[in-house]
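Researcher: I'm preparing a figure for a lab meeting and need a structural model of a single chain. I don't have an experimental structure, so a prediction will have to do for now. The sequence is pasted below. Please return the structure as tokens so I can convert it later.
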Amino acid sequence: MARNSQRLLLFDIDGTLVKMRRGLPSLIFEGVLRSTFGKEISLAGFDYTGKTDKRIIRETAERAGVSAEEVEAKEAEAMDRVITELAGLIDRDSMALLPNVTGLLEALEPNPDMMLALLTGNLPGCAEVKLKLYDLERFFRFGVYGTESADRNDLGPIALQRASELSGGRSFSGEDAVIIGDSIRDVECARAMSATSIITLTGYSTREEIERAGADHILENFSDTEAVLRAIHS
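Model: Understood. Here is the structure written out token by token.
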């Protein structure tokens, strides 16, 4: 296939486009452990940052003392429960749209030199619930989600393949891609696929952590559309 002249922009969701109220992820996954595995524990202090939902289910279940065999047997049920728990708790009071997200996406999406997609640890159903709350799903051609691997770094090559299939015979490589996120795991994902990373300080990773991880570009948020465009084209 021929090389693609487009830039593939791969957006994270949580902490990048929208942000849930603190403590809400723990309520969701405590509900999953209770309903799926019969375990009643507190997940206060659990680190969700940048992890796929598949990995979070495994780690929280292990923390609750669930065997790996039971987790594997009930994984699909647990994923369904994540979506149900989220849908019952999410509204505009419990989740915020981050600064200039809609304005930035409206500026990027019509550009024929850019393909916008999602690269997120969310399950597809969770991504849909969060994006529909602010009418954001319309901007993205496709998504790569937390159902596809427990390891976020595995999602990059899947995104490149999916973009290539949608581009009419043109091929995307890591050098054509930009990971846009908010955590050190987004930086690691970008480096694993030789992509550029643009990281905002709208999540829970500090500037120092992101600098140590080797991010290519660090922004306070998306308020300055031109600054984002410069980083994409650099």
